[in-house]
Task: structure prediction
Amino acid sequence: MSDLSVSDLSMYTPDRLFSQPSTDTHATPMETVTAFMTLLLVMDPLGNIPVFLSALKDVPDSRRQKVILRELLIALLVLITFLFAGQYLLNLLGLSQEAIRIAGAIVLFLIALRMIFPQQGGIMGESLQGEPFIVPLAIPCVAGPSTLAVLMLMANSEGERTLDWILALCAAWLVSSLILLASTPLSRVLGQRGLIAVERLMGMILVMISVQMCLDGLANLLPAAGT
Result:
């Protein structure tokens, strides 16, 4: 198996995926799969396992699966809302596509750094006591700022491909849901060191993706500023 280069990974950046409109009304299967891979990476289900376990430690075992499923459904509703309303929100705020690319890259870069260099309380900081509701599991763990930024970029770049992006989003959400619903047995199989290793590997990949997003945003912004 050949090694992947940074240029190979750049194909997974949202900017490369959605910056070039095509004449077809539907994305090709590979484009949809690549969108799915990007969303799954930024959702980071394996990295969220320790956060879920910590937030649910005081919840009775009989309610844990129900609480996780409730939070996942809330997150899906938020994600779909941003996918549909993202373009209108950008127009309302007067934000350019380049601004969203660069801002999304910065947020993604900061989250990736926290994945590589963990801090106390997890990626999103300290969690609240008691049974979690919306915060921190639905938002920002599953429907985090980087995922919302990617969805807004998708909607703003090629809004006519909404069905394809819904398919990619639902597939990424489904995989994330299955992993998080199995968080307890997965944590036993991988162990703490295994979870940390996987999370840091995903963090390294997200760092490269975020840098490429920022470079592509600047590349489109600088020529426009010079004209």
